[in-house]
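I'm curious: can you give me some protein's one-letter sequence along with its backbone structure tokens because I've never seen that pairing?
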Amino acid sequence: MAIFDKTTEAGKTLRKLTPKESPLATRLLSRPRITEKAYAMNASNKYVFEVTKTSTKKSVKRAVEEVYGVNVVAVNIVRLPAKTRISGQNRTVGRKAAVKKAIVTVVKGQAIELFKAGM
């Protein structure tokens, strides 16, 4: 007789999600962040999005599930600070805007097609 009942991973079932347009979701997700690092992260089922400054992990998870129809495992949020940049011969000073990005991990076997490889 076992003291603790152990649950198995095989017993878990995934929810069936269908992609749909949601005004809240399209406001939260600004755009996918397509860089070399983000492209390399796609192999491990991680996708990077730029999000609004007021968005939270729960709201990003709900928005990605609604828009792309995938099951999200985890969401990590990183804030990139604004920086000053100097450009041109006149040495004009400008500012690079602050960005908040969300790294979304999707269930193994599911994928988000942001762009076609080879473009």
Remarks:
- Residues 18-106 form a domain with the Alpha-Beta Plaits fold (CATH 3.30.70.330).
- The chain is about 20% helix and 30% strand.
- The chain has a mean pLDDT of 84.
